[in-house]
Amino acid sequence: MTFNLQYIPIIPLANIVPFPLKIIKIEKGAAQDIPFFVPKEFASADKLFGKAMFLMPVAGAEELQEPISAFNDTVGVYIELDKVVSENENYISISVSEMSRAVALDCVMINGLPFTKIEIPDETPLGSGEETTAARTLFFEELSSMKDYLARRKFRDTDMVVLKSIRDIGAMADFAADRLILKFSYKKELLAELDHMQRMAKLFSFLKTEASFSKIEGEISAKVQESMEKNQREYYLRERMKAITNELGEGESNRSDAEKFREHILSLMLPEDTEKHLLGECDKLLKMPPHSHEATVSRSYLEFCLSLPWDAESPQVFDTHKTAKILDRDHYGMEDVKERIIDMVAVMKLAPEMKGQIICLAGPPGIGKTSIARSIAEALGRKYVRVSLGGVRDEADIRGHRKTYIGAMAGRIITALKTAGTKNPLILLDEVDKMGSDIKGDPASALLEVLDSEQNNAFTDHYVEVPFDLSKVLFITTANNYTQIPAPLLDRMDIFHMQSYTAEEKLVIARRHLLPKQMKLCGLSGNTLRIQDAALSAVISDYTREAGVRTLERRLAKIMRKSARKIVEEKTKRVVIKPEDLIEYLGVAKYKRSKTQKQQLPGVVKGLAWTSVGGEILEIEVALIKGSGNLVLTGSLGDVMKESARIAISVVKRYAEKHSIDTKILEENDIHIHAPEGAVPKDGPSAGITMTTAILSAVTGIPVRQDVAMTGEITLLGRVLPIGGLREKTMAAFTEGVTTIIIPIDNEPDIYDLSEAVRGAVTFVTAENIEEVLSNALTEMPRTSEMTAGDMLPVDMLNRSSGAGGASVEA
């Protein structure tokens, strides 16, 4: 054992193990990547430090982050540099005059560079020449037995020639280890071995291990090659991965996932068939390659199924007093709807096992259908999930896609249950009347099973593939026009009609809900802003025209923003808004309504129309123009409304004959019937009595009372038939200031469903025939004396006060 007590420079080599050979080949990159590698070129090393160096193997740059003292006792190679034999871009080969194994004793940093003292240990060579000869013979026999493997490891014939020229068995092992491709750890262990015979034994042990791995790899490649089609690279890589996984006993990822899924399945209270199906899916997952597409689909499917609330329920609360308190807190008015909801809660308390009732909240937009559903969920202690069905045209949106399709997913109903996390939530199916259908199916038909209490206890989503119990879900639907809902679906619903708000109700809603909300959003308070009641009423009447309060909220939000700006810019402490200030905040009034027509003109009658956003006043204008008795219809009238006009002409002729009115006026003049706002489509039979009254008024020259509005279908014999949409139509008349409404006698029971404010302010006249309509509408009954066209007012004197609004109307 020899000690070198002089510090010599350390040359660390990343991922390279040097051996004590006369010619040492070193990869340049291994040294250049090392932060404290001293010379960039070995040729200059002797000039800087002398010829002595210590070549030290390190696992990589990460190992060099350790303190320098951590490299003490590292085995390396001590060399004395002779010269550089050859050099290229990648390698440098050096010859050495002295070389031996060495151990670092005291690694230190000197001037930022690594140095060490070394110890050169004694090696254990073979004893006699006979032992060396026998060992050499064994060495070459072992190499010959691995000839094919050595060829794959780039052990060339020239290397074999050099190897045969070496006499020392330890040096032979060093040369072979240097030339062969072996693991870094194997080479480092060979460098540290001082016993020559043990070094040779370890070398061949490592080579046999590598050869066996190489053989297995070859067999795997052969197996894959047999099943691989030409030029299918992706398929080859997958099969290769499968073969490697099977050979090495891997696939633990799938096994671990499958076991977790199995434990989760067994912990749930699942129906027997569902449990069996999901366990079968776990077994399939075990047999799939972990990184295959099929395994990903199966894993996603199981994760989704196990995330469903198979046995999770929210505790329910059936407290009618609490329900009433929450409904009153969140909504003003709607007394009929609130009463029906409280009745429903009382029944649910007495019969909790009763199958779910399907409620349809029907009414114009913006009146609180969606928000009242949220309040019901809060009152019952149920989770609330909203599912928007507006514009849905694909059945798969309800039932889901089969998981065999790429990008498959569950339907909206099952997804809503996953979101809720319980099997008894309140699910709001919003805008159910706006679903469509096309070649992909009819979502309304798919909803039949969902909403049918006799079937939905075993609803099967195409993605989930197993039945799920929906019987404990409380479904609430909303619709603007429930007549658009298919009859089989509508038959499964209990319709709750929600009326438009009156101006008085809007005023209270604005004070209680809308103003506090918008003031909070804009950073205002009662100390900084005040809106007078008169101003708020003016906003409602002059700047909004809707059944609900959405536009009203937007108008108030605009006032809040401008008020906040005034406070910031003008340093105003408090803003008070009066009616005359509204022009500054909202501009000119958009809907200045005239309560009644100032002039009572012949041929002008106020009719009532229904639209999907509420009721409207629909004035009918009739003018007689010199001609030959032709009928002219304008105003975008539909086919049904045109037929009503023709019927009205016949009724007027019969009436004229009965009351001895000269009918030549109808023969000598064209009758022009117009419904103003010609861009708005209009249709329906309920303008029949309106057009009849207008024609008779124009023929006789007798004006119609402008405080009267009417609605009703007319028959050829003059009978008045019932109509629909009376709530919305009467609300429009009430808002317009009409004091008398003529309706069909068969609609009399519907009066009791109207709001108290409307019933108290409007006089309802029921009519069974056209005689009763005319007696209450005309300012006077027609005279029986003859009349001519000259008795009528000119056409240009006809005018109107308001139109049918901006939506398609049904008269």
Question: Could you characterize the architecture of this molecule?
Answer:
The strands form seven sheets. Strands 19-20-18-17-22-25-26 form a seven-stranded mixed sheet. A five-stranded mixed barrel has the order 1-3-4-5-7. Strands 9-10-13-8-14 form a five-stranded parallel sheet, with helices on both faces. α10 runs parallel beside α12 and α24 packs across α26. About 5% of the residues have low confidence. A hairpin with a 2-residue loop joins β6 and β7. The protein is of the alpha/beta class. The chain contains 29 helices and 27 strands.
Radius of gyration: 48 Å
Structural class: alpha/beta
Specify the helix fraction band: 40-55%
How far apart are the first and last residues' alpha carbons, in Å?
Answer: 116 Å
Strand % is 15-25%
- Flag low-confidence runs: 31-43, 785-808
Keywords:
single chain; 811 residues; alpha/beta; 29 helices; 27 strands; 42% helix; elongated
Q: What's the topology here?
A:
Layout: E1 2-14, E2 23-27, H1 28-32, H2 45-49, E3 52-58, E4 75-87, E5 91-104, E6 108-110, E7 113-120, H3 129-145, H4 147-152, H5 157-165, H6 169-179, H7 184-192, H8 196-227, H9 233-248, H10 252-267, H11 272-286, H12 293-306, H13 320-330, H14 335-350, E8 359-362, H15 369-380, E9 384-388, H16 396-399, H17 412-420, E10 426-430, H18 443-451, E11 459-460, E12 467-468, E13 474-479, H19 487-490, E14 494-497, H20 503-521, E15 529-531, H21 533-542, H22 550-570, E16 575-577, H23 582-586, E17 604-611, E18 614-626, E19 631-634, H24 639-658, H25 664-667, E20 669-674, E21 682-683, H26 688-700, E22 708-710, E23 713-714, E24 720-721, H27 726-736, E25 740-744, H28 756-761, E26 763-767, H29 770-777, E27 809-810
Parallel strand pairs: 1-3, 8-13, 8-14, 9-10, 10-13, 15-16, 17-22, 19-20, 21-27, 22-25, 25-26
Antiparallel strand pairs: 1-7, 2-5, 3-4, 4-5, 5-7, 6-7, 11-12, 17-18, 18-20, 23-24
Helix pairs in contact: 6-8, 8-9, 10-11, 10-12, 11-12, 13-14, 13-15, 20-21, 20-22, 24-26
